[in-house]
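Researcher: We are triaging several targets before committing to wet-lab work. For this one, the compound of interest is adenosine-5'-triphosphate. I'm pasting the protein sequence and the ligand SMILES. What I need is the predicted three-dimensional arrangement of the protein with the ligand bound, expressed as structure tokens, so it can go straight into our comparison scripts without reformatting.
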Amino acid sequence: MEVIQVERVRKSFGPKDALADVSFSIPKGEIFGFLGPSGAGKTTLIKILTAQLNPTSGQASVFNQPAERMRQSAQKMRFGILTDNSGLYERLSVEENLELYRKLYDLPKAAVDKVLQFVNLSGERKKKVNLLSKGMRQRVMLACAIIHEPELLFLDEPTSALDPVNSAHIYKGLRYLNEKGTTIFLTTHDMAEAELMCNRVAILYQGQIQVIGSPKELKRQHRKHAVSVDLTNGEAYELPIGGETADRIADWMKRGLIDRIETKEPSLGDIFIKMTGSELL
Ligand SMILES: Nc1ncnc2c1ncn2[C@@H]1O[C@H](COP(=O)(O)OP(=O)(O)OP(=O)(O)O)[C@@H](O)[C@H]1O
């Protein structure tokens, strides 16, 4: 079953197209990474899918209904969203902020303890939000987005302010949620994160999806058809894959000259740069 379907979506702000023509779908249970340089339109699409913006043209559906229905309270229960403007009550404590969400979703008391553990903030529960570090705030916002264990979770750069230990903790928690059935739509600038977490990724550039597939598939598709060979005498070669190269390698092998042979596989970051012509932003 598809949880998200996007068909020929365009969104313009005045004369400028933030999204030109975007189509894709996400099946239930997938962790999908939406990648693209700064300003590519990733947040705009999340806003369309969560009924904060309407597309200029095209269709966006969530749970097999037009995305604008996500405004309705029955639908709001079904998804969670983390963006950098997710609001927190600054003068309330971590726990008091979460209590508001718990009541809103009509959840049992234990939900707050559970989610605090999830984001590794049990020790900070009494702290006022305005006294938290950036990374702690990000974890409180994440806690608010997942306290009701939604069917669908939108995460706009969820680990941008986190140290590696807390990122790893969050990844583990997100995998756990995903195993329990939550579909996750994730934007990130961290290619290692995308590779580690996502079943599939799409790279957005100039308002259109340039490539879509699993990180493994994309790396295979963009593999250089070349082999690099280091010889024991210090010489190094990059050779096209083919019969002539095979003969040369066989000859070097016979003479015991091979130190290392490697086929070149690009990283997701290499593919990103190739597709967008930009450095990671
Ligand atoms: N409300 C708005 N009015 C006018 N232009 C907007 C509005 N919202 C977004 N834009 C423009 O649309 C484009 C896409 O913005 P968006 O925030 O979706 O990018 P993004 O891919 O999420 O970027 P980042 O990675 O920096 O968060 C940008 O050029 C932005 O300036």
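Researcher: Any quick observations?
Model: The chain has a mean pLDDT of 92.
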